[in-house]
Amino acid sequence: MIEIPSEYRGWWRIAETSLWGESGLDVIGTALLSITGSDDRLRMHCLLAYVNWKVNTASLSFNWNGSWEFDEMSGTGNVKLRRDGRLDGRLAIKNGDKSTFVAEPAEPPEHSIPHPPSWRDKWGSRRW
What we know:
The structure is a single chain. This protein is mainly beta and 128 residues long. The protein has a single domain (10-122), classed as Lipocalin (Beta Barrel), CATH 2.40.128. The protein is 4% helix and 48% strand. It contains 1 helix and 8 strands; from the N terminus they run E-E-E-E-E-E-E-E-H. The protein starts with 9 loop residues before the first strand and ends in a 5-residue tail after the last helix.
């Protein structure tokens, strides 16, 4: 488990993104990012992902691995604490889109964020 600075530790509600806007942000549940250093997750739009953190001097960076709907994806990102207590973040999809986001402190979700589905979850039951 990585030691996350206390000012970052917890759950964050992703309130807006520069590329995808706010429409559909919560389509599969409240858009959230967990920063605990153990079993962290990201959920927004149709993205479910596992997150691995790295502590930097004035920010946190992360790698993520998951799926957008049933398409496996991965990427990188970073967050920096603002003076108003919110996070400024960046999210990049490997070989794809990049977006900034703003996140606000939040309570943990009532139900845990599900594991990202794989293409097998979509196509595994089909017989060709």
